[in-house]
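Re: the 179-residue chain
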Amino acid sequence: MTEPILIREAGPEDAELIADISRRTFFDSFAIHNTKENMDLYLNQQFTREMQMAEVGAPGRIFLLATCDGEPAGYASMREGVTPTELGVDVAAIEILQIYSEQKMIGKGVGQALMKRCLEIARERNKDWVWLGVWEHNSRAIAFYRKWGFERFGEHVFSVGTDDQTDWWMRRRIDEPAR
């Protein structure tokens, strides 16, 4: 029998663990699509361990830690207070910045458990919208978000080192069911 995936809010005491998971899962997901030089630049200048640790517990930030059988399985992070104008003016929205599973846990329900909790948090905080950015070539993630009822509403540039890439902005009304 597979152990259940447990989700809990991470606090400052989890900052090192979250930072390590975030950097490892980003590398595992995107190193194959980027040059070594750009990945090194991104991880050592734009996404440092210290920067990630400082975000855990920061105002307006929420981090969730997923565990399975006592082992870290993935994480999610959310942010309040930053909303693209394309979503609307004075909308009650929250951003999902990251949802990542450890490589060995992909396909085992970690992403689903994290997304479910992110949507619960949005409801608890009386948000009308939840939104996120996803790399335009990450078809697996885009399919996952569409399954949860997200639709594309814009795009922006996301730089990995010196490589400017296009991220789609996707949104979902909180009161809409997943498809």
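The longest strand covers residues 163-173.
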